[in-house]
Amino acid sequence: MRPATSPLPRRQKCDHWSPCSPGSYAYRILSGGGKEKLAKICFEDELLISEEKGNVGRGINIAIVNCNCVINSTDHSEEMMAFIESAPQGSLLFMVTHDDGSARLNSNAKKLVESLGSKEIQNMKFRSSWAFIAAKGFKLPDDIEREKINHSDSKKNRYSGWPAEIQIEGCIPRNLM
């Protein structure tokens, strides 16, 4: 007699372990980690930024949901600020770093991201892994994780000279946007 086997778990949107409720959008954002682990942004099971799409770059990668626009990387603060400021009201902004997002980020760009609710943008260091979710024109629910940061530390780095990647995933109620 063969031992009973469990069925394979059903794949959920953006590779969540459990499904979002029918009235919610699924998202998962993942910073880069090391040279080989590139950043990813997934919304409703669509990869907006990924190695597969070929649109991941050094710096801060940003996707804006609700305007069908993606900027793949921002080595230039002015370009990043113009992109964020052009996001229409009712948009979600997803931001993740790959390699280094701090070296060329000027104080005005940091202040703009801080005005969206970031608590860590001023603390970002060389090669920090960073992930951030913001809303423009509406308030995210208090129970949604908005930001994570992991600083490079030669004693704790997972990869040689690089911190581990970090991720934020969850569900956002559709009626907010």
TrEMBL record:
Superkingdom of the organism of origin: Eukaryota
Pfam families per the UniProt record, alphabetical: ILEI
UniProt GO cellular component terms: extracellular region
Signal recorded as keyword: yes
Localization of this protein: Secreted
Keywords: Disulfide bond, Lectin, Secreted, Signal
Keyword Membrane: no
GO terms of molecular function: carbohydrate binding
InterPro entries (alphabetical): FAM3, ILEI/PANDER_dom
All residue ranges annotated as the ILEI/PANDER domain in the record: 58-137
Family: Belongs to the FAM3 family.
PANTHER family from the UniProt entry: UNCHARACTERIZED FAM3
Record-given protein name: Family with sequence similarity 3 member B
Lineage: Eukaryota, Metazoa, Chordata, Craniata, Vertebrata
